Amino acid sequence: MKTFSVLAALAATVLASPTPTEELVARASSTSLTPITVKGNGSSRFYIRGVDWQPGGSSQLVDPMADTTTCTRDIAEFVKLGLNTVRVYTVDNTANHDACMQLLANAGIYLVLDVNTPLYSLNRATPAPSYNTVYLTNIFATIDAFANYTNTLAFFSGNEVINDDTTTSAAPYVKAVTRDMRQYIGSRGYRSIPVGYSAADVDSNRVEMAEYMNCGTDDQRSDFFAFNDYSWCDPSSFTTSGWDQKVKNFTGYGIPIFLSEYGCNTNVRKFEEVASLYSTTMTGVYSGGLVYEYSEEGSHYGLVTITGNTVTEGPDFTSLQTALAGTPNPTGDGGYSSTGSASTCPPQSSTWNVTNDALPAIPSGAAALMSTGAAGKGFGLTGAGSQNAGGTSTGTASAGSGSVTAVATSTSTAKKSGASGQSLDVRPMIVSGVVLIFSFVGAALL
């Protein structure tokens, strides 16, 4: 999201690698779509063909999935575009999302969800105090609210927390949140929902951030990496835009990668990049992407304009619709890498201010939830906020401390409707058991 809110200027969002979690009493599971997992071995891949969806934008935070009228209205447009995925930046974790998630599932659409809100997020300027028990409890509650839907594709632990060279010191906290989310999902006995980070379009440290999120012990590594990219500005090309270098730099990367935002609006948008993104020149590394953004929110990126409950499709809508319809996915595996390994952690430099590989230990109050079970009711879109709530980390984590050692006994039995129960693997995403690989996997660093 280009702008999240005034608070988010300092309070950047974080995301952790989710493992199926359950809480809020057994939420209904969407059973009409097979869960997607990060796993190798398959002959046809799943590519993200999606948009970023947050009607109201950063100035008027509203949960689009808590209102059936909004969902019904917008899903009809998603179907016209031929989408299989939407990203939502902010939700009310106290609301019931059964109806909207089922409507999305009926349309064959998966959800990639950011778990942060402006009030409950990391502060990029002073990350240590904001990494606390209240914050983690709230994002765990969001995981609980969505883990049982089989069309929850992935969670973002953060979005653009690091947005320049001076904020890279917040990276260990982003990585810790991702670790904690993954551990919580596993400890709650949920299916293995992938967790990863959405990085800003910062050339000077994008590769370092990607390497950092994939280095260290298995419990410290993300399930995937994504970044927001606005370098292809029509008219352009694979080489003029620099996308050829973003394929070269990430080739051999050990976890799936995709574009969490794309669609430069400097000139008239024809979405010529779609043809490259879903061609074999890129699919060996990338698993598609999400266009920014569905509705016009004042920044001239909107595909549609919403007035009341009326949707008016703009020229960008037609251009994207045409581009997607004219660009089928590659046949077979798309050239993905079937093996994936950890990256080497990047050294400190003038553009990367992380001095060592150590991560902060999870705050004790949040750690207790790994064994006691449910996080309880979240704070929704209100509340006092978490950034100075206390209950912070008191030390450095030991390697492997984020591993799942036991599953909470209070976990609901309604945990994985339609899931295959396959374990996570650092390889392409597949629709569990149905061999639909998500080039989300072994690719190269941008």
Automatic annotation (TrEMBL):
<comment type="similarity">
    <text>Belongs to the glycosyl hydrolase 72 family.</text>
</comment>
<keyword id="KW-0336">GPI-anchor</keyword>
<dbReference type="InterPro" id="IPR017853">
    <property type="entry name" value="GH"/>
</dbReference>
<keyword id="KW-0808">Transferase</keyword>
<feature type="region of interest" description="Disordered">
    <location>
        <begin position="326"/>
        <end position="350"/>
    </location>
</feature>
<dbReference type="GO" id="GO:0005886">
    <property type="term" value="C:plasma membrane"/>
</dbReference>
<dbReference type="GO" id="GO:0098552">
    <property type="term" value="C:side of membrane"/>
</dbReference>
<keyword id="KW-0449">Lipoprotein</keyword>
<protein>
    <recommendedName>
        <fullName>1,3-beta-glucanosyltransferase</fullName>
        <ecNumber>2.4.1.-</ecNumber>
    </recommendedName>
</protein>
<feature type="compositionally biased region" description="Polar residues">
    <location>
        <begin position="338"/>
        <end position="350"/>
    </location>
</feature>
<dbReference type="InterPro" id="IPR004886">
    <property type="entry name" value="Glucanosyltransferase"/>
</dbReference>
<dbReference type="GO" id="GO:0031505">
    <property type="term" value="P:fungal-type cell wall organization"/>
</dbReference>
<keyword id="KW-0732">Signal</keyword>
<keyword id="KW-0472">Membrane</keyword>
<comment type="function">
    <text>Splits internally a 1,3-beta-glucan molecule and transfers the newly generated reducing end (the donor) to the non-reducing end of another 1,3-beta-glucan molecule (the acceptor) forming a 1,3-beta linkage, resulting in the elongation of 1,3-beta-glucan chains in the cell wall.</text>
</comment>
<feature type="signal peptide">
    <location>
        <begin position="1"/>
        <end position="16"/>
    </location>
</feature>
<dbReference type="GO" id="GO:0042124">
    <property type="term" value="F:1,3-beta-glucanosyltransferase activity"/>
</dbReference>
<keyword id="KW-0325">Glycoprotein</keyword>
<dbReference type="GO" id="GO:0071970">
    <property type="term" value="P:fungal-type cell wall (1-&gt;3)-beta-D-glucan biosynthetic process"/>
</dbReference>
<dbReference type="Pfam" id="PF03198">
    <property type="entry name" value="Glyco_hydro_72"/>
</dbReference>
